[in-house]
Input
Amino acid sequence: MPLTRISITVPRDLVTAADRRARQLDRSRSWVVAEALRGYLGSGPAIVREPAVPYEASAQVAEARRRHLLDDLRLSPEERLRATDELVRLSRLVREPRPRRAQVIGFDSYDDFYEWKKAQAAR
Output
């Protein structure tokens, strides 16, 4: 496999941890970093682990997601399929463009029409 040399800047403690892991495995630092990237990108063994609580979410959101998952797992396979079919049906309604309705608007003067037109353009 052809190799490419890259240069990255990382915190010193990460380099120390990578070197320690490389010695434990009797591998090079490059191998440890490549394995970590493979795991992170999903193209190899999952050496990199996700944190218990996602960084972008609060503990409350993580707990709500967990409860939702547990509730969904309590459903029977038939109930899950029924719910999936309903979600697919609803998603099609959202994606399909609605037919435009004909609208007739009357104005007492051209100035009224012009003001309406300016307000529509400002939206």
